[in-house]
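Hi X.,

You mentioned you wanted examples for the new student's onboarding notes, showing what a folding record looks like when two proteins sit in one file. Here is a clean example. The first protein comes first, with its sequence line followed by its structure tokens.
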Amino acid sequence: MVGRRKRGGAGEPGAGTKRTRQNTYTYDKESDKMESAKFSAFYREQKIVGDDDWETFIESLRSPLPTTFRINNAHGWGVSFRDMLQEHFFAQMEDLVIDGEKVNAPKAMHWYPDSLAFSYSVSRPQIRKAEVLQAFRTFLMVETARGNISRQEAVSMVPPLFLGVQGDDLVLDICASPGSKTAQILEMMKADKDRSGGVVIANDADRDRCYMLLHQMSRIYPENLIVTNHDGQCIPTLRKDGAPILFDRILADVPCSGDGTIRKAPGIWKKWHAGLGQAIHPVQLKILLRAIEMVKPGGTVVYSTCSMSPYEDEAVVAEALTRCNGAVELVDTSDMIPQLKRRPGLLTWKVFVGGKFFSSFKELAESDVNTARAVCSLFPPEDGEALRLDRCMRFLPHDQDTGGFFVAVLRKTGAVDASIHRNRVYDPESGRVCVRDENEVTNAPTEKESAIAKKKKKNYAPEIKNEQYRRVREANPAFFKDMCDFYRFSDDFDCDSLVTVSVDGNGAAYVVSKETQEILNAKGIEKLKIAGVGTRVFVPANKRDPEFAARICSQGGALAAPYLPERTIDVSLRDAIKLLKRTDVPYSELEEKAQRALEDIRRGSALIRYQPTEEDCKHHPFTRVPFIFPTMLCTTVVQLHVKKEERNNMLKMMGEGPMELPAKKKAAESDSK
């Protein structure tokens, strides 16, 4: 979570949280009601919907959110995958009735490119009562683990679509965790066949969320990813040839109060109040201003929140535009994704302070309410029309059965300087808001803030160190030679793409692109706290296996397979099922084709590849994307390195029973139960 975090109680939508965990709140229909007088009074006053629309808006917030997912089209087979879903699953759901209630098949969200995103509503009891729903659930789990499907809220898919990513862009996702939007950006880059060489830096302020982000990204095995651990307000600037490295595009999906997620987090109804948006507003503004600093002139910044409050939406954008003094403009997106319903941004709103609503800071200053309880930037600007705030986009739940969301697309048209960080204050003499004195420092934390930050830091896990990545070839030449001799990479593999962070070069090896290495070699990289890069492909082998220096890890199998022709064994569906069912399979039990491939191959780490045939696809919900499993070739048996849960899910999808455990392991599990 990016920015200074303010911690509330368990499940509280406290300020500073990227996505609060209100869904841990247990909703009891008998004791609680999905309503809030504060919520209703606030949003009626803001007029985000008309009076005729109000009841429909509120009723939509009280209804459960549909399940949504999208297909990864990075490799160009998304349309065939979509058609396979229609044939194997959706067609069987068309006339499905459970307990007298019709179950609707997933529906394509046609505003998403190539209609590769779907929405459907089904309850757990319904899944248990229908075989096709159980099979579809298993299929989603397997394909999500393989990176072919991403389960993601519909409105969460929107911001990357307006970013306009191209294959050769340098992109920053400034508040990246949990990573669904980062994955979209990477997929868009891979899908661009005309351009290549782009790099994505995904940043988050929370150390543990950085590692979760890396885990999520490992499903799509990127070579052009760097994950960093910094506060989004103060990411260090890298330099090349004396000039700062600026980004082509930046996504700022900032921390927010999260009331747009109220459909999946009903605990918000009880805990909501207007102060949540006021508290997080300064952090959001600082993150957006930092993004504007780091983007190239002519580049794009997409600002988004899952909040409906104008304090976190239009107020932040308006203040950033005002401070940039014409160097940034809002982009007209009216002709982009026309099927996607959205509403224009607000030009005016009111600020709730001391139990009253105020239209301007001047009105607040002339009242008997303490002005220290609000900042000037919360209030609507005098020239909202001139700033074109109507070009902002507000997504409301009842328009397309989604969550609430806000998106603004900004284009940098000129240079900005450090003056954009100077706060604006109310001048009682002129009755206007103006910039503070140039000599007054506004960004330095107060003594109280520093003390709080220091105290919180003690409770956090250790910070990520500023470790530097080096080429394996340079870090440990002997280890690198052993690896190359054992695996015999194909000629089109760039051996310099293997990098490591270990001091002696014997640690895990990651594959990164040439352009990613250039970023890793930039001046100032030592200031960047890097959580991970590229895709981990090799890890140190067991010391008991001196024949090979490193083994292939599960995350890197799909990426490594094209470059390891001598250590990749193709198997049939029958052999794939046998290998998934058992921990050890003797060579003699495999089909003749696989046995011949194993005759001359050196024992040790290798890859098993199952490529579904046309005949296989007729009987199973398979795509033409190969299943690739890391394996260990022992003297007489093959050992597949796949987790038990993943094995069982794949076997279910193939219409088979669960994995067979050896007798000793079965007895041990029985005793533990």
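Then the second protein repeats the pattern, sequence line and then tokens:
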Amino acid sequence: MEGGEVTLATVAAADDAASGPNVNTGGIMALILFYCLIFVVGMYAGWKGKRVRNPIIPSDIAPPAAGEQEGASATIDGSPPMTEDEDYMLAGRNIGWLVGTFTMTATWVGGGYINGTAEALYDPTKGLIWAQAPWGYALSLVIGGVAFASVMRGEKYITMIDPFQEKFGNYMGVLLFLPALVAETLWSAAILAALGSSVRVILDLSNNISIIGSAVVVIIYTIFGGLYSVAYTDVVQLALIFVGLWICVPFAISNPNVGHIMDSSSQWIGHLDSVELGTWLDTSVLLMLGGIPWQVYFQRVLSAKSPRRSVGLSFAAAVGCVFMAIPAAILGCIGASVQDWGAVSSMYVNGSSPLSTGEGKTILPMVMQHLTPPLIGWVGLGGVSAAVMSSADSSLLSASSMFIRNVYKIIIRPHAGAKELEIALKCSISAVGCLAMLAALSVNSIFDLWVMCSDFVYVLLFPQLLCVIYVKQSNTYGSLAAYILGAIMRISGGVEPFGMPALVKYPDFDEEHQRQLFPFKSLSMISSLLTMLVISLLFHTLFTRKLIPMKWDVLECYHQKVQPTASHEAPVDSKNPDIIVQSCSNVSGNVADCDC
């Protein structure tokens, strides 16, 4: 299995069977206690956020300035006034160091992240070599901080889609929004399903109950407080993950049925065959670069107090991601060091083990259940449930923010007032949460669907993000061509969740297992990037040098020069004064050559 799949491997083990007769009452009470704690903190944070939120300018006291929306509030960094719905999305751009570090770390540290890390170390066909998620996502945070965080925060965007719509137009922005929305929703569904499998193992309780309970709690406190609730609950949730996992380590490692960890090092270190090197490299690059163009990350970046702080938070979160994976990795090694699973549980007879019975994906809750005292196992389960909620709430708010800001407000209801947008945002959070919950309950291949969407985020969105930030000549022609080519190349490589075989078999194709060993995902991404550069430059040259008639500019990236007003002189091409380009600033602060 690829390292990218490991990040959410427990989802594939979710079981919707009804609870058994030996329901663990004490564990259920402990889980309810954890849920109540998270709920109370989330509601309190939302209440506190409303009290400290930047004061809204009442329309009956001071009318909004020209170009401002009624109900706007001033921001602490001198940026344009934020409406109440934008303040709700970004917590007034007032996230400090401590809360910011915790909430940005929670971007990737979820239930699938810690369960998948443990599963990788337990499975001898993977091992430490294939546990790529911790360092892959950590490097994505570093790269994001170096290359994108400061620029995006400096431009004071509200969502990740804003620069796309600013430069490529509203409808191209909607196209780019679609893979981001689906990926965020399926991410929430996948980690909810991951919690269900853990609860089933430890408490012998139907995972439906835990999925529904978690979804309801997350939806309510996210609706109430927005990013304020999400950020402050992340502090408590990461603390629970830290305590819950580490407290299990000494009890599990000292269990008499566990041998010395180093004696089983050949199993948990793993190995990498030369034929799988392409797959390993493909997954590594996907994690490092594909982990950047996610709204769940940029929501934290854009909520920081300053561009410099957004960079620092990215670096701090990178360290946090690696650190939080350590106890999960140790517990996976402990699972690999169990000498006789038959002596641990009556479930395993004749030398069987979780690996041989196909339950290796649930090794983390297995270790908590069978190698620690009940009370300690319950605390560990609290850590797992906290990990799930710390990622689920972020994704719900992120997906809803993009929809309201970049679709509802701009395309559907451009004249909507602040109150309508706030209500619509809360309804959107409920809708996305319910969709994620239903998917987690009913779709067996939710994990595979999420992996596929992650591929599309990497192939389709990363080249677009790179160009919109750094390539001045990029335009809608290049963006649309790159989008189409990237999608075709990714689909032609095979889409297993939909039973679509590979239409193009790249070198070293594994005929036996019908899988690509060539790094075709990275090839698709690079091809998409090159297409965007070439097509954008081609059309920019054709129109600005008047090599083709302006009437052929069907996407209206360039247009004939018009008479400028006295107050706003429109920018023109220096070599061709008869050609005018759309007047807007790109993300670097200079006038963009096109805005379509």
